Amino acid sequence: MRATVIHAPHDIRIEEVPDAAVREPTDAVVRTVLACICGSDLWAYRGVASRQPGQRIGHEFLGVVEAVGAAVTGFRPGDLVVAPFVWSDGVCEFCVEGLQTSCPHGGFWGTPGSDGGQGEAVRVPFADGTLVQLPKEAASDQHLLTALLALSDVMSTGHHAALAAGVRPGATVAVVGDGAVGLCGVLAARRLGADRIIALGRHEDRTAIARKFGATDVVPARGEEAVAAVRELTGGSGAHAVLEAVGTEESMRTAISIARDGGAVGYVGVPHGGSAGVDISQMFDRNVAVCGGVAPARAYIPELLADVLSGRIDPSPVFDATVDLDGVPDGYRAMDERTALKVKITF
Amino acid sequence: MRATVIHAPHDIRIEEVPDAAVREPTDAVVRTVLACICGSDLWAYRGVASRQPGQRIGHEFLGVVEAVGAAVTGFRPGDLVVAPFVWSDGVCEFCVEGLQTSCPHGGFWGTPGSDGGQGEAVRVPFADGTLVQLPKEAASDQHLLTALLALSDVMSTGHHAALAAGVRPGATVAVVGDGAVGLCGVLAARRLGADRIIALGRHEDRTAIARKFGATDVVPARGEEAVAAVRELTGGSGAHAVLEAVGTEESMRTAISIARDGGAVGYVGVPHGGSAGVDISQMFDRNVAVCGGVAPARAYIPELLADVLSGRIDPSPVFDATVDLDGVPDGYRAMDERTALKVKITF
């Protein structure tokens, strides 16, 4: 089969790789229908996060079950399924609690020895614990399929940020970052009943989506200027809940600074700035909490899926470009150069 | 009147100062009955936290109301009262929400222009918003008074740490720090229904109090060794809730490392190590939250007071030495040299 392989920073290739196959009785093989490129894939693309040369890449996909191992009971060939961005066994104490990202048998698509999501098929370990069933009818509805693809990571991650930040009905929320996760964070905050949602972002095409998703205010500034703008919009107090969806030192510093005293930053941006953005003295004096981390998408997909199917939320606008498998290197380039927000891959 | 004054690191003096007096209609004057020395006073004593030469010091006291301003409605001369370690107006949005430490009219005892708690009397701004009434009968019960004095800071702060860390019935809790706040954190965790409480501390007289307060396990190690010990005690998982009551880089690092995935560190140790102890990458991968800060003691005193009066909790064992006002410099020395845990001041 063919799949996306990363050889070095900026060196993404589509190559022939061994066919995905059932190896363990708990495995399934999923033939990919849709996949996409993540903002966090760019950390590898840019060489900020290291990868072994020749490693697979991609962690968001949905598709059709092609084969299952003897121990798989919840799925059978022909099922339409979406995968969260990590696999998990579904039975350990963490999985039972809904923190599947801490499953001791879990793993991240594309790590050495596993298939990545940006390929024609994927061997899915612990299929029963990992995959979520989608209605078969969705297969013929490209718009709906696109919305469902967002559950794999960005919509679930935005939801995690909103939960971690403690978004409640009536809350004032600020969202740092206008990437796909930040935008989904806006949508999640609205879904959780936020009254006012301030989106921080400077790309007008993106903030337009933020407004469509429920942002009531847009702050195009950065750093100190952004802090001042959010303070002014909130009568000096700051936001009850701040979603940090970037992962840099500056964004974390901004997020903490615009939180209202007693509030929380829900951070989901993969941290690449050490801890320097975390100003513990400022947090201490104002009782600002820093919560969040890697989103247990598997825990959230069922409830978010219901809302996508009912039409209550539609995250599909975060995908603004589409490529086929051969176009994936171009897709990375477009996202790296910010000419695309999030690139969908069709098979 | 006479009060404690700090002139320079290690230079604490008892001096004649202007009498405390009602200046604003919302003021009260409280004649001090009991006060004490806080672990956080040692930061000033050691020169780690700067003070203006000649500044007053001390932020924990209870006493008898001597005079009230015309606008004070909740107190009158003769009332026995305890003060939280910050004053607050009681009417702003933060006070109403129970985050009195963020009151825009609030302040910390001993800041320039205000009286400190380690003096014969204290001018209390916003008496109605700040003070809490105690039963008059307590005045004749030295043991009870001592327990009530702990509400001013250490017991309320330990409770804040436990709340911030999300202590729930049945939880496994770890407490980093065997100072008075850490010990009160043990007591607060037990009060909130923790099932297992692991106290980290190496001073046997202190860990004996921890056991009396409800600690089920004691870990005398530090750093990596402590992390390994807590992991072993918890089947490898760590503690659901970790109370960080030290405020150094090492203690924060330890606290994060011993938290169970998905758990939280409730930190109340005044931070003096920058943000270096906050390992955001470790927090991210394991969804460990860092919550807490300066405790809104005023919010907690009423409920904790009820439990002290009923005998359900007794934090008095954290006081292991007593001095009179003239003995305060010796009290600082004893705490600095760790020959005393927490020094009570009688008047």
UniProtKB/TrEMBL annotation, chains A, B:
Zinc keyword on record: yes
Domain Alcohol dehydrogenase-like N-terminal residues, every copy: 25-135
Domain of life: Bacteria
Protein name: Zinc-dependent alcohol dehydrogenase family protein
Cofactor(s) in the UniProt record: Zn(2+)
Classification via Pfam families: ADH_N (PF08240), ADH_zinc_N (PF00107)
InterPro entries membership: ADH-like_C, ADH-like_N, GroES-like_sf, NAD(P)-bd_dom_sf
Keyword Metal-binding: yes
PANTHER family: DEHYDROGENASE, ZINC-CONTAINING, PUTATIVE (AFU_ORTHOLOGUE AFUA_2G02810)-RELATED, ZINC-TYPE ALCOHOL DEHYDROGENASE-LIKE
Keyword annotations of the record: Metal-binding, Zinc
SUPFAM superfamilies linked to this entry: GroES-like, NAD(P)-binding Rossmann-fold domains
Residues annotated as domain Alcohol dehydrogenase-like C-terminal: 180-306
